[in-house]
Amino acid sequence: MSGDGPRQVNEALLDHLRSIFGRLSSVNRVSLFPPNRQESLVIEFETAAYPESIGAVRLEVRAYTNGDFHVSYLETHIGELRQCRFDRHDQNHNSRDHFHPLPDASTGDAQDREFPTDLTTVIREVVLPWVETRFGDLWDDA
Per the record, which residues fall in region Disordered (predicted)? Predict the structure, then answer.
């Protein structure tokens, strides 16, 4: 799929991802279309296994029927929000597939990427391995 056509929320895909994340023991809560993120699936990770300095870790997933997506990783570290984002959408700063790195997901630091076609595969093969590596990095820095 390309970014052509109207951008409508892919409710079926987000609901499918909700059911998958809802079964994971590392996930504390899953919210589909919460009031403050009406186009998103919000996944809050259990932080008991994280270093004490980490107050919250979550993913926010937006998926659209035209193939566009945004997967944001957000962590609260000693009260400071850190974030990065895996994106597929047309814009003028990078290729359609790109990554906005930590600590602030800035457009100026965005990096061109090439993600698998299917968002479920992107999450399984790109995002979750990145989250796991980040978990290890947080402990290395603790």
Answer: 92-111
Residue 2 lies in a domain: no
The domain in which residue 128 lies consists of 11-141
In 3D space, the residue among 109, 108, 113, 141 whose CA is nearest the CA of residue 126 turns out to be 113
Evaluate whether 43 touches 56 at the Cβ level (below 8 Å).
no
Give a yes or no: residue 23 inside a domain: yes
d(CA 29, CA 13): 18
Instruction: Convert the pLDDT of each residue in 121-140 to its tens digit.
Output: 999 999 999 999 999 999 99
Is 41 part of a structural domain of the chain?
A: yes
* In-domain check, residue 4: no
Domain count for the chain, please give it: 1
- Look up the pTM and report it: 0.92
Residue 60 one-letter amino acid: E
Q: How many CB atoms lie within 10 A of CB 34?
A: 13
Cα 42 to its chain centre, rounded Å, is: 9
**38-47, Cβ contacts within 8 angstroms, sequence gap of 24 or more:** 39/9, 40/14, 41/14, 41/17, 45/131
